[in-house]
C-alpha cells in the first residue's frame, strides 16, 4: 500500500462521517464562501469601481443601488466594500489567533501530559491560574496598554497593522488553556499505549516519541479545539473593536463597523445589521464545523 492510499484509507471514513453531519456541511460551505469573498475582495472591489476608504459626504446614507449594492455609511463610504475588507481582517485575526493558541496549548499540554510529575503540576497550575482570570476585563486592560510604553518603535505603534497584531497577541496569550487541557488529557492516555512503550523500550528519546508517536495521535482534539476557538476569537475581536480597543479605523473589521453603527441603529439600522449578522453567521458556522469534526474524528465512532 502506497503512502497516498494509506492516507486515503485513514481519512475516507472521517470524511464520510463528517458528510453525515448536515449542519457541519452547511457551516463549512458558509465559511468557504466567506473565505473566498475575503480573498477576492481587492479585485472584486476594484472591478466594481469601489473604494472602502473613499468618503463622499454628499452621498451619505444612500440606499442600495447599482453603484453601491449595499448603500453607503455615515461618511459616504461603500458598505459592501467595507464589509469585504472587514472580512479579511476579522477572518485573519480568527485564524491567526486560533493557530497561535493551538501552538501554545499543544506545546504546554504535550509536555505536561507526557512528562507528568512536577512539570505537569506546575504547568497545570499555571493553566488554572490563566483560566481563573476574568477574561474580558483583562483583554480590555491589555488592549488599552500603549505599545510605545512597552518599548516598541513609534512607527510600528502608529501603523494601521499594529492593532491587528496586538489583538492576535493578546488573544493568543490568554486563549491557549482549552487546547492545553485537552492535549494533556489525551497525552496522558497515549503515553501508556503499547506502541509508545515499545518505542521507549527500543531506546527512542522522549522528544522523538512525542514528535513521532504521540503528537500525530493528538490531531483530533487539536483540530476540533482550533476550529471552535476560531469562532470564539472572532467574537472577542468584535467585542474589543466594538469597545474601541481592537482594530482601529480606518482599517475596517466587522467589530468596528458595528461600533460605528451603534449611534445610527434607529436612523440607519442596516449599518448595524450587516456586520452583526456576519459575525453571528461566522461564529455559528465555526461551531457547526467544530461539532462535525468532533463527531467525525471520534475514535469510538465505528460507522463508516
Summarize the structure.
About 70% of the residues lie in helices and about 0% in strands. It has helices spanning about 5-20, 20-40, 40-45, 80-115, 115-130, 135-145, 155, 160-175, 175-190, 195-200, 205-215, 220-240, 255-260, 270-295.
Q: Could you characterize what this model shows?
A:
This protein is an all-alpha fold. The chain has a single domain, classed as Orthogonal Bundle (MetI-like fold), CATH 1.10.3720.10. Helices cover 69% and strands 0% of the residues. It is built from 14 helices and no strands. It has helices spanning 3-19, 22-39, 41-47, 79-115, 117-132, 135-143, 154-157, 162-174, 177-190, 194-201, 206-214, 219-242, 254-260, 270-296. Helix 13 (254-260) packs antiparallel against helix 14 (270-296). The longest helix has 37 residues, at 79-115. It is globular and about 75 Å long. The protein starts with a helix and ends in an 8-residue tail after the last helix. The mean pLDDT is 83.
Amino acid at each position: 500500500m502506497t503512502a497516498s492510499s494509506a492516507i486515503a484509507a485513514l481519512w475516507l471514513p472521517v470524511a464520510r462521517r463528517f458528510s453525515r453531519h448536515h449542519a457541519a456541511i452547511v457551516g463549512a460551505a458558509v465559511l468557504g464562501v466567506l473565505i473566498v469573498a475575503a480573498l477576492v475582495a481587492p479585485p472584486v472591489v476594484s472591478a466594481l469601481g469601489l473604494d472602502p476608504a473613499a468618503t463622499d459626504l454628499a452621498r451619505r446614507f444612500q440606499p442600495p443601488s447599482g453603484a453601491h449594492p449595499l448603500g453607503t455609511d455615515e461618511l459616504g463610504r461603500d458598505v459592501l466594500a467595507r464589509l469585504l475588507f472587514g472580512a479579511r481582517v476579522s477572518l485573519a485575526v480568527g485564524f491567526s489567533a486560533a493557530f497561535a493558541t493551538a501552538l501554545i496549548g499543544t506545546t504546554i499540554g504535550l509536555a505536561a501530559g507526557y512528562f507528568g510529575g512536577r512539570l505537569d503540576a506546575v504547568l497545570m497550575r499555571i493553566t488554572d491560574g490563566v483560566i481563573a482570570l476574568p477574561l474580558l476585563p483583562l483583554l480590555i486592560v491589555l488592549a488599552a496598554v500603549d505599545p510605545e510604553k512597552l518599548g516598541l518603535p513609534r512607527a510600528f505603534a502608529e501603523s494601521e497593522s499594529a492593532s491587528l497584531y496586538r489583538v492576535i497577541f493578546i488573544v493568543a496569550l490568554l486563549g491557549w488553556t482549552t487546547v492545553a487541557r485537552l492535549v494533556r488529557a489525551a497525552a496522558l492516555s497515549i503515553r501508556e499505549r503499547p506502541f509508545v512503550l515499545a518505542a521507549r523500550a527500543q531506546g527512542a528519546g522522549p522528544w522523538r516519541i512525542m514528535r513521532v508517536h504521540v503528537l500525530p495521535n493528538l490531531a483530533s482534539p487539536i483540530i476540533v479545539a482550533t476550529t471552535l476557538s476560531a469562532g470564539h476569537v472572532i467574537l472577542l475581536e468584535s467585542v474589543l473593536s466594538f469597545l474601541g480597543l481592537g482594530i482601529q479605523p480606518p482599517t475596517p473589521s466587522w467589530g468596528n463597523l458595528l461600533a460605528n453603527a451603534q449611534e445610527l441603529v434607529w436612523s440607519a439600522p442596516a449599518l448595524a445589521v450587516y456586520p452583526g449578522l456576519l459575525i453571528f453567521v461566522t461564529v455559528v458556522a465555526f461551531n457547526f464545523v467544530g461539532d462535525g469534526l468532533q463527531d467525525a474524528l471520534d475514535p469510538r465512532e465505528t460507522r463508516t
